[in-house]
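Homework help board

Subject: predicted structure for assignment chain

Our instructor gave us this sequence and asked us to write out the predicted structure in token form, then describe one feature. I got the tokens but I'm not sure how to describe them. Can anyone check?
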Amino acid sequence: MRGWSTERPDDATTIAGHLLRTFGASEPLSGSEQVMDDAAARLLERLAAQGSTLVLDNVSSVDQVTWLTRRWPSDGSGPLLVVALSHDPGSLTLADGFPAESIVPLAPLEIADLRQLWRAEIRDERWDPYLDDVLRACDGRPGAVWDLVQELTRPGADIWHPEELVDRLQLAAVDPRLRQATSVVDPPARVWYAIVGRTHPGMSRRARRLARALADLPVAELTVEAMEAVRRGLDEDADNSAEGEPERAEYPHLVDPLHELTARNLVRQSEAGRYRMPREIRVAVRAIVTDDKREALRAALPSLVRRYAHLAERWRGVLDSRAHAASAARWFQAEEPFLRALVTASYPDEPGETDEPLLTLVIDDLATLTDALDVWYVRQGQVLGARVVHSSFGDLAERAGRPDLAMVAETRCAALARATGQFEDAAARLERVRRQLAAFGRSTRRTAWALRARLHHEQAQLHLARADQYHAHTSPTSDHGSGATDPLAAATRRDVELRAAERELQHAWAALPKKDTAGEITTLLSMAVVYLHQGAPERALDRLDLAETRAQDAEDATALAHVAELRGIAAWMQGRAPVAVALWQRAMTRFSELADHQGEARCLQHLGSAVLVAPELASLLVGDQRRPLDEVTAVRHAYTWLQRAQRLVAGQPESPIGRRYLDLARERVGHSGGLAQGDAEGVAEDHPARTDTSDDSDRRGWLRQMLGRLGRRLLA
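My token output:
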């Protein structure tokens, strides 16, 4: 529960996301009580199904786990939950609602118990007169005693005098440097203050610089590759034989500073191969190793950010490759918390004596990281993580004096507000961007045009979202409150919004810089969506033809999948249902190959809903079918596909039309003699199919609502 950031512990929503992803469920999209309660219920269901025991260690605040404990069964019927808190005197509030027998308070160990632990490893009698003073400084914490024992017994360590250790432990309790380095001066921090204060003069200069850099980095763990980037930055920056190098290193056979730090137990390596400097050691190093303060971080952090910017950009590029998309998805899923910690860190923006500010050194690489994360968040539908990243980066860009990057971040925040139905907030953000863009200098003309195109495109998406909202009021029975409850007035407002979206997309097309192929494809796809909303499939196909040509030239597999999906909708509107389902099946296959679960889920909903409307289409989708399926079998297949679509986007905002058709399929399957299980294999195939009994208005309503789900995906 320590999290990836060294500046702040993970909040409840981030922790919920990590836990749910670990157990194969999607993270919550907001921190609201209702969403978090739903997340806790889904996690509890997964744990109960697997017979798991959940252990949450190093909880720094009860707020991190309250969302989970308030839903946990207090009668003992749920899975076993173990919560270990640290540094929180108010932790007893966590026990509210739990039976007394389930609470196990852990009191500090007595001096006699600590003495036994010490003497099991150290039998030197010269420690006896001072041992109680040493153990009292450990304040009943066996971990602190164990750290001291390891330091005193490690190979190559200097001989400690008992009086010196007692003096250093007592000094740690009052030294203001330690209190400046941390708000929590606990026994482990005092112990490591004494150890580092005693041993750091014997460290090589390279080891001291590396230790100081690791203590100041905004991330808690580093992969082997990340550690190499940190070391490369330090090696390229400084003269490592400068004044202060000891005459004889304590480990003369270790010329590698990382090996030196691991030999001293200052850096630990996990079984997964990641390097970590524990919190108490970081605190001690920041308080003691002051000769390389700021210089070490200025050398190490830009190198680390630059390396991960290159990695993120490379993996982002292959997210659209069918051969490597699955590997890229695994990389982003594993590294997203680390990348988020880098982007949301507090970078100092004051200059050094002769150098430019650290923030200025890293802002462009942070922009590259943010671009890659944005693509990943859009693909995964992770609104919460995207909001944190774009908001933090926008603040950094403003502090760095980069209005161009700040406007991109603000536009993305507007897109997130739109996606969550906060239209007024989205409009206000876009208006701020418009005003800033009007004042933007002409020295970067291409950048200004690119920003203008992005602004027009997002304004079009906002108009399209409002059109979908007004469409909900075209039914006389609608009780939604968008400001136009009369069906005729709502239909008029919807048409106005669609025309406005079309105009904004035309402006976006005109503003696109030359050779911006990705921007052209995105704009063409959005135009096609608008034309489909307007009931003009021929105009949509004209734009899709051009988008397909651009996507083929750019080898953009994701765009080609979107083209196939939209072609299917156009074919359905033209009454060519067999062509439509074939196109949706092709798009679903492409999305699946790209590990794009949202796209795959949409296509499954298209197919399942289409079969509910026209059951005879099922025979076109089930392999080796020589005769049409009967309606019961077809509906069971549709129910299976709709269920899978729901699982693929679990935890994301539910589609009303998707829920409607899933409920309809469940009802029709239930009437036919029971719910489908598994993939509906072995169902009867020898009954004649029934003809379509639905009317055209039902099909048009389904199409309009399905099209509304494409809006957010087309602004990557």
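Reply (TA_rk): Your tokens look well-formed. For the description, you could write something like this. The mean pLDDT is 83. That's the kind of observation they're looking for.
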